[in-house]
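Revision sheet: structure tokens.
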Amino acid sequence: MKFRLILLAFIAFGFLTNAQEKKQLQIKRTSTPPKIDGVLDDAVWQTADIATDFTQFRPEMGVALPAHQKTTVKMAYDDNAIYVSAYLKDKPEDIQTQFTSRDNFGNSDFFGIILNPNNDGQNDTEFFVFTSGTQADAVASPSNGEDFGWNAVWDSAVKMVDDGWIVEVKIPYRALRFSNQEVQTWGIQFHRRFRISNSQYSWNPIDRTKGNIGLYNGELVGIRNIEPPTRLLFYPFLSTIYDSNKKPEYNIGADVKFGLTENFTLDATLIPDFSQAAFDNVRLNLGPFEQTFGEQRQFFKEGVDLFNKGNLFFSRRIGNAPIGSPNLAENEEVIDMPTEVKTLNALKVSGRTKKGLGIGFFNAITEKTEASIRNTVTDETRREVVEPLANYNILVVDQQFNGNSSVSLINTNVTRNGRFRDGNVTGLLADISNKRNTYNIRGQLKMSNVNLPSGTETGFNSFFLIRKSHGNYRYSFDHRLSDTKYDINDLGLNFRNNLNNFGIDGSYQIFEPTEKLNNFRINGWVNYRRLFKPSTFTGTNFGFNMNAQTKKLLWFGANLNFEPGKQFDFFEPRDFENKRFFVFKNIGFIGGWFETNNNKPFSIEVNGGTFHAFDKERDLFGYDFGIEPTYRFSDKFFVNYGFSYQNNKGSRGFVTNIDDDIVFGERDILTIENSISSSYSFNPFHTLSLSFRNFWSTVTYDEGLFALQEDGSLNRDDDYRTTDISDPNVNFNTWNLDLSYTWQVAPGSFLTTLYRNRLFNFSNASEDSYFDSLSSLFDQSIQHTFSIRLQYFIDYNSIKNVFKKRNTNVNTLSRFSNNRYRYDPDFSNTRFSSNYNIL
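Predicted:
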């Protein structure tokens, strides 16, 4: 009841819109579309209205562009697309150009086009073109930020000229979602980024002190009588995989996008192929919670902004390791336990109406998976299901209003065949700001239901935050609560429940440069933590974080965190009923970092920190440092090396259970990580990339082990070493390498060749040196993988137009098929274009 009253109050308090002064640009229809080649001699550009007078919003606000950097933008449209031209003046020697892969900004200037067909201030579609000719695109909203996992197929061209550079862009309507209205007004914004000075300008002025950036879009007026096209897009693929440990595999399948209505789209992956997803950065995990990794599969990264509401969707649950484990009889052993489950297919439907109502539906199905078990006496084998056929679903309804607020209802559920567990979670979410964008309130209520063979468990979670969201000084208060049964881990990610936590945050930041600094921000926090049941104190901490950038583009920062007094850890003992706890006290950490100007060919990032327990009863001390130099040999080739070192002395943690005793150990942990990443881009369409990582960690326990006492203290017991405890020392070493070549053969179409190898070793030889451990690593069998994947983009409308043209002019086909793209190897005269005339 309390939450509903607060929600209603803030809806009323924020219901009126926050009117901003907006520039308007009149767009005109053309019967002759421009040729996308970076040459502005087309008739349409001679009469188009001009957008100019850009102003800076980062690092300073309101500064006009100097005359030698004047920016002139023009737009036009027809029945098929929006067209944009931009003349971007600048001194040639100041223009930064680094060749990168798609969506990788690198060290390049860029020109950005932001379109919002609903003109709602919350749902932007962004298109960026770099001086190198590379493209990037994203969808953006206040709640999810910029999602560069979203990809569209559109055309652009760049031409370098004596006084700057020119951009031409064609954005087909298939890349946008808009309503079928006779007269339309869209939100529009243009951005220009100067890498050399780290400054950014916009056409419509932006006030960074309050509100989300989409509220400051201008308006595009004059669009009439356009209809959303039939959005039917196919991405068929062929792939082959050779693994040194398996038989060769050959795959064929397709991804499909279909516009169900003018605003809603169906995305489906049929016979999914995730063979070229990158390796996970596996680490040694000594903690009580699972180790997780980011999503690497494109289908689950793209267009999931609606499904991420409330953080109830962790896509790695789909196709992850089986949920079950085999039931072994006497004399049985597992000879084959799958590490992942195959995804049979997946689809998502999502969109948003003109009135701000967003609806999303997600479904995925994974196949039945079995483990192989052998009887060691009879040598008989059998198979047991460890993951049944499973169905994953998400339904979300999200109503936006005010240009800055939303209320959402989301449900996730997982249904598994047979005796396995099912999960269902429902959440009610609100994110509301007042009309002046000065204060913000967020609230979440979530309920989970897990069906187990033993019965149903229902859990509850809530989150509340209120904050001042404008000005130099800002502050917030938040509260988080979970009962002991809250569990979303069938489709979500939740490390722990049973909490009742309070937090206070405050910050100060500048929005105008000072004499020496471009940026400066410092924030501090105080947290107070309790268990939900029993209601008992578990700990507190306070600290601060600071980061700043100098006029010479040097970044630096520092952070501190301190946990004063006794802290009660109810999770390290692995007692999941939260009856046992481990006590530590007075632990502090301090660290810092700096990063040099990465516009220069050589740049370097350095970080370091140390922690210490101010406790006379134990000697806990640790430190870490890292160094990451990067060298750009040219605009096409760079190499980055990373090295990190961590050394923890005297840490204490869980080892094992013996009968009713919980055994802890005191240990020294040494970790070294080396990584190399490199890329050579021949041009915007051809890239050769290398990624390498070696992670090594050792854990060496003290001679004696400890018995955890009822009061959370540790009592040393040397007898544990002579019991059934195996050697707890650890030497963990992993190595992986990726070498890939990517060729964009046509817009939206890619040929990717990938070579990989991987090594892994786990032993008790914690006293080995790094090089001895590396030698042991290469004694293991190496896993080699080679794969080739061709994905091609087909637009139904292009096919339809081809047959129309064939009936009228057969010669057109042969003329276009010999003009795939234009590229001059002399960069000073290059016209980069993705306007391949693919039929």
